[in-house]
Design a protein that fits this description.
76 residues, alpha+beta, Ubiquitin-like (UB roll), 3 helices, 3 strands, Ubiquitin-like_domsf, RA_dom, Ras-associating domain-containing protein
Amino acid sequence: MQMLTSTNQKLLTMRHALVERIPVLHLERCLEDDEYLLNYLSSWKIGNENLIFLEERHDLYGLFESPKVNKHYKVN
């Protein structure tokens, strides 16, 4: 992470995440904190169009910072 932030000249904050983009599936997701990046990348097939990039995501921990309950869901 330090190498990525120094290369991109960015300050690393709690809002930064490693994001995976899989164009074939039209999917974009933040990698989990406990995922081993090298093991994950080694499972990719050669020649795929997948991307991993560092991005500041304001929605990364949004569920925990400001949880909202659906008005149709009853909480006891």
